[in-house]
Amino acid sequence: MPDTTPSATRWLTLHEASARLDIHPGTLRDWADRGRVRTFRTPGGHRRFAEEDVNALSAKSAPGLDLFLSATVGQARLAARSGRLASEPWYSRFDEAAKVRQRELGLDLVRVLIGYLGDTEKGWSDEIRELGERYAKLAGDVGLSVGESLRAFHIFEGVVRSSVEQLSAAQAGGAHLERPVSWFLNEVRVAMVESLNQARA
Length: 201
What we know:
- The protein is 66% helix and 4% strand.
- By secondary structure, the protein is mainly α.
- It has a 3-stranded antiparallel β-sheet.
- Strand 2 (39-41) and strand 3 (47-50) form a beta hairpin.
- The model has no long low-confidence stretch (mean pLDDT 82).
C-alpha cells in the first residue's frame, strides 16, 4: 500500500501510532513499507499513519501481549524488592544512573520482544543486535566481566520467563509464547556476548 495523500482520515505521528500499538517505531515503519498501514508524508518528509489502520492492527494484535508487558514489569519489581539483585556481588557496581539504564533497557527489550511476537515473519536481526550491543555497553561501563554480564542477563531472562508462566496460567493463549520468547532471548544474549568479545579484542 503506497503512501497516499491526506483526506478526511485522521492521521497519527510515528510516536502516536507506535505508542498506540505498543511496538517499536522501526516495526511500524516496516509494516508501512509492507502496506499494512496507509501513510502519507508531510512537506518536511515525516510519515503520518492512518488512525483507522492503526486501530485495526491493534484489534488484531497477538492476544495477551499487553498483559505480558504488565506481567514483566511486575516481575521485575518483585525481583528488585526481593533483594535478589542486591545479593549479587557485581550489582554493587551499578550506580543510580546505571540502574535507570538497566530498567529502560529491560523495557525496550520487552517492547521489541512484543513486536517480534506480533510479527515473527519480519527480520529482527537489527533490533536484536542493537539490544545486545546496548547490554554489552552497559556491562562494559560498569565493569562487568563476560561471566557477570551473562549472570545479569540470566536474571532478567528469568523475569521474562516468569511473566510467560504467569500469562500461561492466566489464559490459554500464553502457552504458545514460550518457544519464540526463548529464541528471542537467546539471540539477544548471543549478540551481547559477541559485542563484549569485540570490545575486548
